Amino acid sequence: MRGVLNLLLFFLGVFAAACCGSENSTEEVLEEFYSGGGEGSSRHTNNWAVLVSTSRFWFNYRHMANVLSMYRTVKRLGIPDSQIILMLSDDVSCNPRNTFPGTVYNNADRALDLYGDNIEVDYRGYEVTVENFIRLLTDRWDPDTPRSKRLLTDDRSNIFIYMTGHGGNEFLKFQDADEIGSFDLADAFEQMWEKRRYNEILFMIDTCQANTMYSKFYSPNILAVGSSEIEENSYSHHADQDVGVAVIDRFTYYNLEFLESIDKSSKQTMADLFASYNPKDIHSNPGIRSDLFKKDLKDVLITDFFGNIQDVHVDNAKSSILSLTKSSHENEIIEAKSEGIDLTSAKPVPSTAGQDANPKPHSNDLHIQSLDENDQKGLKGFFVAGSAVTLACIWLASSFY
């Protein structure tokens, strides 16, 4: 019954479009109906980021730096804090062994404090668990869970998920207390797809044997990338001698090196980012899985996942908007007076010119204007479509008896 209704509404839409003088041909309507907007087109309307450091303790300083580096990059490219979920142990900045208290750096030159005063940590310390991570993805929360701790996505959301920590063949450890497996992650993504919680997902993971973590994915519209193949380690880039530990991982470092070279208006694509990977620099073989992703990576902008771009057209007029408004109002008054209307009193003023027996209506009269050709065509299409819906409902109702 539901299929009959959907088919009826579809043909009704095609018929109504034809009656209303739509610019799209019937063939274009059919193509859009079956293709969902066409290959390579981006249909998302909002962007989210889920950034997870699954480690704790001082010697895992680099994992917290990895996540905070990605956090800074997606904010710079336009994703607001309200649409970023940040999960980290947060035990490094104020660790007694930190030579520079209250700071986290990702480079030995310490030019940029990643921690700073402008970060919002949503899950901190022992809140970073496998259970909370799965609940976050699938939105299985108690009613009293605050909105700031929830991933409030829909079927038009592009989600960037970044994870880093210690892992192995098809598992990733959470703070040396628990672990998440590749099947757990795959099933969580399938629940998200069934519940219409995403449009597309970019999954990026930096850990030992990272590529095994996306090997079990089976849900559509997921693009996955990892730092190392099975039986390969993921290596740190360099250490800060004053801090005493490594400050960033290689795979994350070279991703950031590319991402920091673009801005919100960049036309660089995911294919460009992946082409920049050099196993000799990374010291492992990054993996890319795109078989679940429908689009050509050359058509997918980096900002489709790492940014949040709104298509806004700005007028280049140099005049003040107030002066333009004033000039427009003055012209309206002059035009109205020439037609015998006093806008200041909202009453007709006497005119020395001869009065027409049937004066033409103008914009200030409260008269219904005659419909132009397009309005008539649209109204005709509306009545035709309404009649068709009524007849369809009568037919469906009579079919039950």
UniProtKB/TrEMBL annotation:
Alphabetized UniProt keyword annotations: GPI-anchor biosynthesis, Signal
GO MF term set: GPI-anchor transamidase activity
GO terms for biological process, alphabetical: attachment of GPI anchor to protein; GPI anchor biosynthetic process; proteolysis
Signal peptide: 1-16
InterPro entries attached to this UniProt entry: GPI_transamidase, Peptidase_C13
A Pfam family it matches: Peptidase_C13
GO cellular component: GPI-anchor transamidase complex
Active site: H166, C208
Stretches for region Disordered: 344-364
Pathway(s) annotated for this protein in UniProt: Glycolipid biosynthesis; glycosylphosphatidylinositol-anchor biosynthesis
PROSITE patterns with a match to the protein in the record: PROKAR_LIPOPROTEIN
Family under the similarity heading: Belongs to the peptidase C13 family.
Name this polypeptide is given: GPI-anchor transamidase
Top-level taxonomy: Eukaryota, Fungi, Dikarya, Ascomycota, Saccharomycotina
